[in-house]
Amino acid sequence: MIILAIVFATVTSSFVPICICLLSLIAIIKKSKIILLFILVYLLTYGFLFLVEKSNTSSFTASEFDGNCQITNDLKVDGDSFQAIVRCKKEKFQLRYKITTEEEQHQLKKLQYGQIIAVSAALEQPQVNRNQNQFNYQTFLKRKNIHYILQVNALSISDKVSPSVLMRIQNMRLQTMTHLTETISPKINPYFLALITGEKNGFSPEMYETYQQMGVVHLLAISGLHVNLLIGAIYFLLLKLGITRERAIICLLIFLPFYVVLTGANPPVIRAATMTALLLLSEKYASKWSSFSVICLSFILFFLLQPYVIYEVGFQLSYAVSFGIILSSRQILTRQQNAFTKSLAISFVSTMMSSVVMMYHFYSFSWVGIFFNLIYVPIFTIIILPGCISVFLVSLFSPTLTNILEIVLTFFIQFVESVTNIFAKIPHQTIVTGRPNTLVLLVIIVTILFFFHQWQKKKFSIGIFICFCLLCYLASFNFSGKVSFIDVGQGDSILIQLPYNKGNYLIDTGGQLPFEKEDWAKKRNPFTIGGSTLTPVLKSKGISSLDKVIITHSDADHMEGLDDLEKNISIKELIFAQGAENKAIMKEALAVMPQVKQTIILAGAKWQVGENSFECLYPVQKGEGGNDDSIVLKAILDNKVWLFTGDLEEAGEKAILNQPIKADILKVGHHGSKTSTSKEFIQKVKPTFAIISCGLENRFGHPHAETLVTLERAETTILRTDLQGEIIYTFGKGFEATLK
């Protein structure tokens, strides 16, 4: 009850105060002490969080900064990027620096925690999320008590190093990571880095995503399972060496904090270490605490010491799954007749309990993990994890023996990866739900709790489980139509969702112009519009497939994201104008998706769904895929006329002046360039709203002042993604912007 009250207090929704008022009324009428306790804890927690939030402020303002900083956390050199959390004048900052030479990169890789560096930089406010339901970097940093980014222009490394005890342990972790990188084959060292030091960035994006969609990605991180196995092994070894139980417990209590810092101090590790320490203390003093009491106590301690941790994904997943397994162990798991059914039940409980967290943060969850965990958990816990630890320990004193053991382990891991790639081809492994709203989320949680309550009574309720599945579908169901102008930076991407899931259409995918870098400057997992922005936005809206993807023309900022999009979202039909396929970028895209239906259109192409219709007005003849060959699409949506013009310029605009182009809403051509949106064109279209999609402070100067003046003189309301982020039109309601 106390835990639920704490969790409830962190939910920021207008729906929550209404629930509290209703609960208060019920508590008064029924004179329920439990409900009154719930409300009291809720109010105390809410007040505590309010005070924490109020005190979380900065004494700095956005300005220039010159001075010394000490590196304290999250030290990372990735390609030409250097990042770290630093402390300057008793305040923390997120430092960023672009490395200029390979020699400088080597120098920065030698840095350690506690190092003093002199910087010349600018203090900048972190970005908020520019698309609805996306990662808010400003909030993320604020919850780490960081309010500014230190954007460094120049830095110099001081000889002064003054690490604290914690920093010394962190430096040991850095040395371990360096040793593993230099000693272990690149083919398998990502597993060593992940399972020994907690560093997950060594995996290729493809391999990591494969494990993720199969629901076994938790095995690639140090979790409670790994901590318990390690502590159990050390405890057993100490007893075998003749050490008494009391002294063995003291040794483990000393070792646990050291191990937590050594492995990156992630919430799942802290949770497991805290619970283990509490259980060891209960054994030492013969107080016999139950696992449930221990997990509740560790939760409360964790929250009081680090209030913001409750918002972290790792914390939520770790405690949700652990609570589920501990509560189920009393009746559900004890009724299982053999090891297989017990393992299947544990996997099912874990999947159900983690599903809500996965829906909220990742907009989907893997149902096949229920079965794949039965295969992969034994493989990792019996072979891969002990194998990595053994090879690591041997590598400290015997290179020859290390090579022999490494060859055997490499063969096994590569075999597992080969089988994994085969399993990954099984379709529909994940259920895309989008991010449920607060009401739906609470109903899903209540449904899961009620399901387990019934299961504990020896009734595996199929009916309640079906309700859970229907709620997952409901979370992704689009009752009202929407048109979303997604903020993809300097590019275009427009999502059209017809009411009642009757059609999902995407006009352009955004993208970046590729810039070649030297090998040393390339990042392990580079940012891409298609993979890092567009795909998460679509999944957050509950979209797992697109009925039509329309590429207006073959420029990188309109279609470079297509490749990453196709890897993550099912595309039923790809539409482009005749001649667009002749440009190299389109040829390459078509070559990697031969299974997707391709439709080449010119003016006159039409389709209709209910009252919503679409018609291609331009081009009338084969082109070359350039700006003036852009598809111009006229649509009737929500009884309003929409005109989507791609990058059409003035010459193309003149070519369609005799067409019926009057529209209520105009997607302005070429990001508001002065070569588009001519006076004659605007006089003919007469739009009420004009949407300009362009990047924040882009180097092209879009939108041009001349274009803005033209639209303003026509008394058109201008909406811009660079100023307002994602712009969403909801049928029957109108426009709303992500950035208020």
N-end to C-end Cα span: 37 Å
- How does CATH name the architecture of the largest domain? 4-Layer Sandwich
Strand content: 15-25%
Biggest sheet overview: 8 strands, mixed
Q: What is the radius of gyration computed over CA atoms, rounded to a whole number of angstroms?
A: 28 Å
Q: In terms of per-residue confidence, which ranges show pLDDT below 50 for 5 or more consecutive residues?
A: none
Quickly give the structural class: alpha/beta
Average pLDDT for all residues: 89
The CATH superfamily of the largest domain is known as Ribonuclease Z/Hydroxyacylglutathione hydrolase-like
Largest sheet: spatial strand order: 15-14-12-10-9-8-23-24
CATH topology of the largest domain: Metallo-beta-lactamase, Chain A
Shape estimate: globular
Number of strands: 24
Helix content: 40-55%
Structure description:
This protein is of the alpha/beta class. The chain folds into 5 domains: 1-55; 63-163, OB fold (Dihydrolipoamide Acetyltransferase, E2P) (Beta Barrel); 175-355 and 369-428, no CATH class; 440-476; 481-739, 4-Layer Sandwich (Metallo-beta-lactamase, Chain A), CATH 3.60.15. The chain has 26 helices and 24 strands. The radius of gyration is 28 Å and the shape is globular.
